[in-house]
Amino acid sequence: MTLSRFLLRIALLAPSIAFSAPTAAPSDTLARRLAPCLACHQPQGRNDAFFPHIAGKPEDYLYNQLLNFRDGRRQFPMMTYMVGNLPEPYLREIAQFFASQHPPHVPAPVPAATAQVLARGRMLVLQGDAARRIPACVACHGQRLTGVAPAIPGLVGLPRDYINAQFGAWKNRARRAQAPDCMADVAARLTEADVAAVSTWLASQPVDDAARPATAPAAPLPMRCGGVPDHGGAP
Ligand code: HEC
Ligand code: HEC
């Protein structure tokens, strides 16, 4: 989707989205209350460069993002508006709800790329580049890149444009996490060509619908990450 189509979609959606804190009405189930979220976060796991899927991502990862929007570390006006005034226990319920959904993945077109680009992307993801202090993505995102519960998301199944956009946001500080912000540090060490290679390789990997986040990292994380339980990583 182009940026102008994205903005058009927001303009069309905005008036129809009403979202409120829980009430005691008996028909007021969580699924029903969260239906407005699906206007942008497609229920069937469809992927989009601008509207990320949220179903099936690890619970604490989703919870941390809701806090990040609420507290201004991530910026998207509609998201801030939606979660800005909600109490933390309710944000926790929302995160639990979406983390427990596992809709089948809808494949995106595999990006065209040269063998060199793919090889470079694969190398950075699986091994990193010690000389440039770039840790392997698998060291935190799991050996199978399906994430590590409870707070690190998977990387397979994300569209290339979405990954590129997130790296751009980390580099220009539009996306931040609780300190220490390990992804901002990783992003700062990658060149634009590195990011393009990594996102292209990741978006070319097959997705296994039955895969779930690993329950623990295979080894201590190479850096510490705010919002992630301490796995003994170096500061
Ligand atoms: C008008 C469209 C819109 C609506 C409605 C909306 N969101 Fe979002 N949401 C977005 C966009 C766009 C982003 C990505 C912003 C960015 O790139 O930082 C986002 C990001 C998120 C993220 C972070 C995803 C990730 O993988 O990092 C979560 C969690 C989230 N939204 C939850 C919700 C919940 C819960 C609701 C309903 C209460 C909701 N959203 C309603 C547009 C929307
Ligand atoms: C030291 C651990 C660590 C390393 C190494 C690491 N990541 Fe991350 N990554 C994280 C954490 C933690 C988050 C969640 C950040 C947050 O809460 O916003 C994350 C989030 C992400 C996201 C956001 C996913 C989404 O759904 O929005 C992407 C994309 C990503 N990382 C890509 C990468 C790539 C590519 C590499 C390798 C070049 C990498 N990461 C290396 C810890 C790491």
Produce the secondary structure layout.
Layout: H1 3-13, H2 30-33, H3 59-70, H4 77-83, H5 88-99, H6 115-126, H7 138-141, H8 160-171, H9 182-189, H10 192-203
Helix pairs in contact: 3-4, 3-5, 6-10, 8-9, 8-10
One heme C binds at residues 52, 61, 64, 124-125, 135, 137, 139-141, 152-153, 155, 158, 163, 166, 177, 182-183, 186, 198, 221-223, 225, 227-228.
Can you walk me through this structure?
- The protein is built from ten helices and no strands.
- The protein has a domain at 3-99: Cytochrome c-like domain (Cytochrome Bc1 Complex, Chain D, domain 2, Orthogonal Bundle).
- By secondary structure, it is mainly α.
- The protein is 40% helix and 0% strand.
- Bound molecules: heme C (2 copies).
- Residues 10, 13, 17, 19, 34, 36-37, 39-41, 50-52, 54, 57, 62, 65-66, 74, 76, 78-79, 82, 94, 175 line the site of one heme C.
- One heme C binds at residues 52, 61, 64, 124-125, 135, 137, 139-141, 152-153, 155, 158, 163, 166, 177, 182-183, 186, 198, 221-223, 225, 227-228.
- Keywords: Heme, Iron, Metal-binding, Signal.
- It comes from Pseudoduganella lutea.
- Residues 1-20 form the signal peptide.
Would you summarize the structure shown here?
Residues 212-235 are annotated as: Disordered. The protein is mainly α. The chain has helices spanning 3-13, 30-33, 59-70, 77-83, 88-99, 115-126, 138-141, 160-171, 182-189, 192-203.
CATH superfamily of the domain at 3-99: Cytochrome c-like domain
Count of helices?
A: 10
Radius of gyration: 18 Å
Small molecules bound in the structure, each named once: heme C
> What's the overall average pLDDT, rounded?
87
Helix fraction bin: 40-55%
